Amino acid sequence: MKIEDGVIQECQDILLLALLSIFEIGGNRNRGCGSCYVEIDNQQWNPSDLFTKVSKSSINLEQIQTAQNVAPCGSSEKQVFAKLKLTATSPLCFPETPIVGNNVVSSGWTIPASAIQGMILTRINNLNSEVATSCFNSRLFRAWPMFPVPKSSFDDGIPVRSSASHKISKLANDNDKYTFCDEKIEKYEWDKAPKNAPIKSADGVLIKKGCQVELWRSGEMARNLTAHGVINGERNLYTVEALDEKYFVGLIAMPEDAYNLLKKSLETSDIVQLGKSRTVRGSGKLEVVPLDSLPTKLPRSEKDNKDVAAFIVQSPILIDATPSEIKQKSADEIFADVLEKSVWGRPDEVSASIKILFGWNRHDKGLQSAKCVIAPGSVFRYNTVPCDLAEKLVAGIGEGRERGYGAVLLHPGIASVRLSGEKFEPPKYKNSTTPAKIGWELWRKNKKLSSSQIAMLQSRVDEGLESARAFLETRRVEGSQARWDRWKEVFAELKDLLNSEADLENVHRALKVWHDLSVANKKEEN
Predict the structure, then answer these.
(1) Which residues of 22-37 are buried (b: 16+ CB within 10 A; e: fewer)?
(2) pLDDT tens figures, 27-86
(3) Taking Cα atoms as reference points, which of 376, 372, 256 lies closest to residue 316?
């Protein structure tokens, strides 16, 4: 629609009010990356006076629509399957339960399906809101959780959360091999179990690579622990335990028109942000690889030489049973009833557990109420292969697909190899041209720039060296003299650091050293 000149001015006033109000509503809270503030040249307004002006505006905001650069939504019925590959550039934090009564935020070891759906739908919505809404409501749309994988499995591995019935020997055998078993795939000869290596449950991820299945236990995945000081009347200290693995893989099914927009969005920028405090931590680069179909090859029992129709729950499944029914029945019976009411039908074997899932999201009456769910890792099996297997995997089990509930995948089979986390080798700096030395010199030469301003430059480096150079140039030619005075002391050094032949990893390291020293210096002054 056409917007008149007067309306444009009123829109500018609303945007100006939003920017000027950041500090007024608490945007100056410190999270270890400096204070947030806004400078707007040649503006004399204060938020209260500007709000009075805007409140008298006659503009109808509901009639202003963002121009779309893509074709309007169609009714695409063609389904696309894809593999999602995330390369994390910082630790990720996905708390599984709300923190009450202590100051420790602990991450789970998976990226929930709900977070993946939100990330994808937001990117599609930025291009076409109609396609995003259609995709959200489509029966063809389903996201599965993303799991960490070692670098060796990033390209060709398909990870699946291990089942509660999958077990591993506590110790290695004489040949340095571990013993694995899963009663839902084939019966285990317990009388032949090694006496010095008792069998125990193995929570983690099963990674299918060709005909081999590997197990990576969750307890061996790297974590990152940080402490944060918050000033809110008085100093308060809290810690965050984040997942510090670099490579994540997951699956998604979606309508073709939505998939095409997702690909288009990632061609513009593949940087995504996920998790708690994702503006501070939780960034990565996302890649989407099309698949011919979902993994539907059944695991095989070597003893019986038969395919086994076994499935593992990947995300929580809502239970519609009453509290009295939950008390009277076992978890296996309740799960079997849930499956019987779904498109799957009643299973022949079940191994399930029930947990309480607390709500994070708020609505008009506060936090969402706690729910009883079938826990991820629960497993069920049929004696015959279910028909329309791919359709059943997309349909999932139970209600709540829009919140990431009900995702299941085929059991990949019994593991034969145990993976261990890649050994961390700290960088060794030997000469004066190392990133550590460069970062130290930048901090020593200029202590006027805040850690948040340094973080702004770091974020541009994530987009590429050309974007960082363009940002640095704006510090010189745009804005006030006061802003330029803060940058000019290190402008030449930064220009050399960001040259076209620079190593991107070394640039990241140098800026991180500079940023960390700035944060530490600020804390010491306080």
Answers:
(1) eeeeeeeebbbbbebe
(2) 444 444 445 566 777 777 777 777 777 777 666 554 444 433 333 344 457 999 999 999
(3) 376
Residue 389's Cβ-count burial label (10 Å; 0-12, 13-18, 19+) is middle
Q: SS3 letters for 280-332? A: CCCEEEEEEEEECCCCCCCCEECCCCEECEEEEECCCEECCCCHHHHHHCCHH
Is the four-CA dihedral 362, 366, 370, 371 of positive or negative sign? negative
Q: Who contacts 430 (Cβ-Cβ below 8 Å, separation ≥6)? A: none
Phi-psi region of 282 (alpha: psi -120 to 50; beta: other; left: phi over 0): left
| Contacts of residue 219, Cβ cutoff 8 Å, sequence gap at least 6 | 203, 204
- The DSSP H or E segment spanning 440 is helix 435-445
Strand pairing report for 199-201 and 166-169: antiparallel
How many other C-beta atoms lie within 10 A of the C-beta of residue 445? 10
Question: Which residues are paired to 146 by β-bridges?
Answer: 111
DSSP H helical ranges for 25-162: 47-55, 113-127, 129-137
Is pTM beyond 0.85 here? no
Q: How far apart are CA 113 and CA 314, in angstroms?
A: 9
- pLDDT tens sequence across 262-282: 999 999 889 888 887 655 567
Band of pLDDT at residue 485, cut at 50, 70 and 90: confident
Using an 8 Å Cβ cutoff, are 311 and 379 in contact? yes
Q: Is 398 helix (H, G, I), strand (E, B) or coil?
A: coil
DSSP 8-state symbol, 208:
E
Query: Could you report how far apart the first and last alpha carbons of the chain are, in Å?
Result: 52
Look-up of token digits 């040249």: 41
